[in-house]
Design brief:
Elements (H helix, E strand, L loop, with lengths): L2 H5 L2 H31 L4 H33 L2 H9 L3 H14 L12 H13 L3 H22 L5 H10 L15 H27 L2 H31 L9 H19 L1
Helix pairs in contact: 2-4, 3-4, 3-11, 5-6, 9-10, 10-11
Length: 274
């Protein structure tokens, strides 16, 4: 039997579809519970709705690229498996790179449906799953301790100035300035550093290819992502300028998605020119 017929069989659709449906239901349940919890503690509903709209708009544009990734991988891995990988925890750049590396390790030159075998698909699927599971494993092992530290940090801060005044009156020693924990703000700094490192890695690789490339094709292939990155950065700068100068706070809900859309349009335009 053709390997693609097996990979696109109703049984595979049922297995992968059940997992995707379960994850979707869990997301809806947690979203509803989070909104209700925010209302219960007195969070501003307008800000929560703005966050929901911003998250939704940010998710739409990347999903277009993910859909293209599913289509690209479905030619050699079938539709259900790429759909599962890119719907639950996978990333487009990760899945394609790991799939190609696993295919080469299995003796297949690239992801080709004509040379795909059950053994090769098993190797690809196993490698794609094992290599990305460690984030979940580390979260299970460390999130409880991390949450306790966050809770301890937040509970050590006074709830209101009145609480400070009452505490100072009761205990003059409490009026001394409290030492700020070194742990405060570590998560934001770590995420910022991680993001900068990720962007620098990709941009640095393209700059290296541009400097060491030979011929006009190599120049075009290296210059295109750099030009797109510059356009995306300029678009984000324009959105930030509109927000600050025009006092348009609503721009925050669409700045990331709009920058991505402009960058995608620039990629198409520059691709035709170069």
């Amino acid at each position: 039997m053709d390997i693609l017929k097996i990979l696109n069989s109703p049984a595979i659709y049922l297995i992968c579809g059940s997992i995707v449906l379960f994850v979707a239901v869990v997301c809806v349940v947690f979203a509803v519970r989070a909104y209700r919890a925010g209302c219960a503690i007195g969070m501003d509903t307008a800000k929560m709705k703005r966050a929901i709209i911003s998250s939704a708009t940010f998710a739409v544009l990347p999903s277009v690229g993910i859909l293209l990734g599913v289509i690209a991988l479905s030619g050699s891995l079938g539709t259900p498996w790429p759909w599962l990988r890119l719907s639950v925890i996978g990333a487009l750049h990760y899945e394609t790179q790991v799939a190609e590396a696993a295919a080469e390790a299995a003796g297949i030159s690239g992801l080709s449906a004509s040379s795909m075998t059950p053994q090769a698909f098993t190797t690809i699927a196993l490698l794609m799953s094992v290599c990305i599971m460690w984030g979940m494993v580390f979260a299970i092992l460390t999130c409880k301790r991390y949450t306790k530290r966050l809770t301890a940090q937040s509970s050590s801060e006074p709830d209101a100035p009145a609480a400070d005044a009452a505490s100072d009156a009761a205990d003059p020693a409490a009026a001394a300035p409290k030492k700020k924990s070194a742990f405060a703000g570590f998560g934001d700094k770590a995420m910022t550093a991680m993001f900068i490192g990720l962007v620098s890695t990709y941009i640095g690789s393209y700059i290296g290819e541009l400097v060491s490339g030979e011929g006009i094709l190599a120049f075009a292939g290296s210059a295109l992502p750099l030009l797109v990155a510059l356009v995306g950065a300029a678009a984000m700068g324009l959105f930030l300028w509109i927000r600050e100068k025009k006092k348009a706070a609503w721009v925050d809900s669409f700045s990331i998605a709009g920058s991505m859309l402009i960058a995608m349009a620039a990629a198409v335009l520059f691709g035709r020119i170069l």
